[in-house]
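Action item from last week, closing it out:
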Amino acid sequence: MKSFLTVLFIAFAFNGAYAQQPKSVAQKKIAPFRMQMANGSAYSASDLKKDVPALIVYFDPDCDHCTAFVEDLLKNISAFANIQIIMITYVPMQTLKNYISKTGLNKYPAVIVGTEGTTFIVRYHYDVVQFPFAVLHDKNGNLFARYESEVPAPLELAKMFYQK
């Protein structure tokens, strides 16, 4: 019985030591990403406009929820007039090009779309687990909201920027 209690105690100790901490949005800056765009040029976090808030969407082209979000975003693009929109994925370039053509993203030059490939800098920086994934950064680059899987409608996201 004593050895059973010892094993039970050790199991609880290890469980507590490796328990996941809640995800926080406190003072997290924009991921130091670098991605390749469909036109072959590179785009990185250092290319973002200063003093302009940013919506960063991490997505998977095979995700139906991601596609529905993008379609809604494009229908309401005027609500993001003063907000940078950066869409990042990890898929190969040809898959991204097909997705851009299918969704009509190529008609919206204000939406920056690219792939980070298998570097997964964005994915690890924000601890992305589910798609679609969106983070909102204020004009100083500070994270003030993050959403996984259940991303609010684009119009609701746009309102959050103006309430900040």
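Closing note: Confidence is low (pLDDT under 50) at residues 4-23.
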